[in-house]
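tmp note - 2Fe-2S ferredoxin-like protein
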Amino acid sequence: MVEKSIPVVTLTNHNEPLQHAAHSPSLLVTLESAKIDAPYQCREGFCGACRVKLIKGQVIYNEEPLAFVREGEVLTCCSQPITDIEIELF
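out:
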């Protein structure tokens, strides 16, 4: 059986990379678990307040967000990394 690797989350303005735990429901929860002050409001993908710049890597949405998401951006409240990613908080 092949073990699935744990995606690494790197923030442009943070020293230590984070590991996205398999049980974590979203990227936002991973950030909060690491005591990173990340913006959010609805936690459902409706408002877009948790928008971050996706510099590299890929994420998947738990459910397609209703908020407008530009190319190169991702909503942390309703997404999970599927590869190692690098993000920048706005």
